[in-house]
Design goal:
With 315 residues, this protein is an alpha/beta fold. It has helices at residues 2-15, 79-83, 107-115, 142-151, 162-167, 169-177, 198-216, 233-241, 264-272, 288-303, and strands at residues 26-27, 50-51, 54-58, 61-65, 90-91, 118-119, 128-135, 157-160, 181-184, 223-224, 230-231, 245-247, 279-284, 307-309. The longest helix is centred in the middle third of the chain and has 19 residues, at 198-216.
Length: 315
């Protein structure tokens, strides 16, 4: 009788799926957007955010650990869902911390970036720096900047506009040839938070892509920097829907005013005084000061044990 009872218990466990292994993956409803057909904004692949079962040992007990799907593809919203996205224009900002401590940002900004493939920090557990330059127009300093990067065996990301590409074809070709990333900074440099129509938004992006391909014969890498750092939820969604990652920053300073350049001493103190693990640094290539200090800044970063990594590693 005891043997029969044990067999019955075992059968119940098998039928109920209580075998110690997961029978399905869990999805979080907040990140699931389902297309309802013809009213989608654009035919991008819908996806879900999966929580994959990962097991860790805690004493004698095996516990599940949540892990986000790193291959998450762009979400698809219906026209009605897009109409409900936040449209309040925000200007990106970061909160400086002491040297060695990663910058912070607003909770809402961080949440939106996480949701729509945006980044302002990289891996903060390692001494990594992601060096980026914005190129709205050429002020004569980019050749020297490229020389310094090459001499120090450093790769950067240059965010460029369509007019820049068309007027600086040799520099664009050189950036690509020397292994740098050339990112998208739009065609006319508008505040993308003000662009409500998707097709208009798309043209700002694709215009830059087409100019880049005409010069290099290559597809433009899918990294986007919003002009002036202005965004809203809708613009971040549109950017993601076009397959791009939005790259903001955890350090920048007032280097873009060519008639009011900071001194070499002040600039170096500002940059090195706020260097931190995972830093995404924004520098403007129109800056005379940046060009003069770049070599010494890179050498100092390396002396402190920092590595300059590619934005391709942001995930």
């Amino acid at each position: 009788m005891k043997k029969i009872y044990c067999i019955l218990i075992l059968l119940c466990m098998l039928l109920s799926g209580c075998t110690g292994y997961p029978t399905s993956t869990k999805t979080t409803n907040s990140d699931i957007f389902i297309s309802s057909g013809s009213d989608t904004v654009d035919p991008y692949i819908t996806t879900t955010k999966k929580v994959m079962p990962v097991y860790t040992q805690a004493g004698d007990k095996t516990e599940p650990k949540e892990q986000e799907n790193v291959d998450k593809k762009p979400l698809v919203l219906t026209a009605e869902e897009v109409s409900r996205l936040g449209t309040k224009k925000e200007g990106w900002y970061f909160v400086r911390k002491p040297v060695g401590v990663p910058s912070d940002a607003s909770e809402n900004g961080k949440a939106l970036l996480k949701k729509y493939h945006g980044y302002y920090l990289g891996d903060t557990s390692k001494k990594y720096i992601y060096l980026t330059f914005d190129e709205g127009y050429e002020n004569g300093y980019t050749p020297k900047i490229l020389d310094v990067l090459k001499e120090n065996n450093v790769k950067a990301c240059f965010f460029v506009t369509t007019p820049y590409i068309k007027s600086s074809k040799e520099l664009i070709a050189r950036m690509v040839e020397e292994g740098h990333i050339v990112g998208n900074h739009t065609t006319t440099h508008p505040s993308m938070a003000d662009v409500s129509n998707f097709e208009t938004f798309k043209k700002e992006i694709t215009g830059c892509e087409e100019a880049f391909k005409a010069v290099t014969g290559k597809d433009m890498p899918k990294f986007f920097r919003p002009p002036m750092g202005e965004y809203n939820e809708r613009s971040l969604y549109y950017t993601q829907a076009l397959g791009y990652k939005s790259i903001f920053w955890s350090f920048a300073y007032r280097d873009w005013v060519v008639t009011e350049q900071p001194t070499v001493e002040a600039a170096k103190k500002d940059i090195l005084g706020h260097t931190h693990p995972g830093e995404v640094i924004l520098l403007h290539a129109v800056s005379k000061t940046n060009t003069e200090i770049l070599d010494s800044i890179i050498k100092e970063w390396k002396a402190q044990g920092y590595e300059i990594r590619s934005v391709e590693e942001l995930s």
